[in-house]
Every structure is written in C-alpha cells, then in structure tokens.
Amino acid sequence: MQLNFKEIFTAFMVLFAVIDIVGNIPIVIDLRKKVGHIQSEKASIIAGVIMTVFLFLGKSILNLIGIDVNSFAVAGAFILFFIALEMILGITLYKQEETNPLTASVFPLAFPLIAGPGSLTTLLSLRAEFRVENIILAIILNVILIYIVLKTSRKIERFLGANGINIIRKVFGVILLAIAVKLFAHNIKVLFV
Fold this sequence. Notes:
By secondary structure, this protein is mainly α. Helix content is 82%, strand content 0%.
C-alpha cells in the first residue's frame, strides 16, 4: 500500500467538486420536508459503497450489460437535468409514490445525487491516473463530509432561513442544470465521434 497525500488530496477535491454536497443542501432540505426524516448514516454509507464498488467494477459492469461510460453519463445527465428543473421552477416532476425515509435516503439522495453519474464517471477517470488506495481514502473523506452536511442540514436551514434556502435552491438549480448540460454535451460528442 503506497499512500500519496497529494493524490489523496487531489482525488478528494475532484470528488468534492463533482459530488457538490454543499450545493445539494437545498435538495436535501426539500427532500427532508417531503419525507420527514432522512437517514444520514444510511445515505452516506450507501453512497460510499456505490462509489467504491463502481471504482473496482464500474467499467466491467457497464461493459457486461453493453453500456459504455459515455452512454451512462448521458443518462445521468437527464436525471440531473430534471432535478435541476424541479429546483429552478419549484415543480415536482418525479412521482412521489412513497414518502418512506429509507427509500428517500437511497434514491434520490445516495444515488444519483451523491453517487451519481458525474462522480462515478469521475472515479473511472481518477482510476486511470491515481493509485486505488488513494482514491478509496478520498472517497472515505468525502463520505465523512457528506455525513456531516446531511446531519447539520437542519441547522444550515435555520441559519439561512426560508428566503435564503429559496435563493440557494434556484442558484444551485441553475448550476446543476449547467453541470447536466456539460455532462450531456461532452459525452454525446464522444458517442458520435
């Protein structure tokens, strides 16, 4: 095992930027209002497990079912696009069949918001550049940070207030929309080249 703190820090920062848990606070707060309670531990652990498994098996799993990474990223871009539209327009596009906290902790929180197509495709890119143990440590550090943000989201909500949350929701909705468009454009271009 060869730990390289520069690799760990770089992988951590790249994943932190892509996961954007701070930017997802409005979604977390909105989700908490819909379902009541979110299991922060469960969401964090499931997201960490998904990212770790995908780090090792992602490309193989996608190849096994005949999907390339770019197609996966395009599909994920659509999900992010619709979530962003909900945030910006204040509408509900996803059918709310259950208001089960366990279900909400897994979908859409753990996947695709935290361990989504952006972070999963990023992991495949990082794997090509960095050692696996350094990437795993970066995932663990991100999971700890995600857990802290999820646990303190009520305090953050009280601090920002209703208007602050609405403003942040709209701003991060536009940012999420831009990420979805960028993810779509980059990967659709690769598919047709």
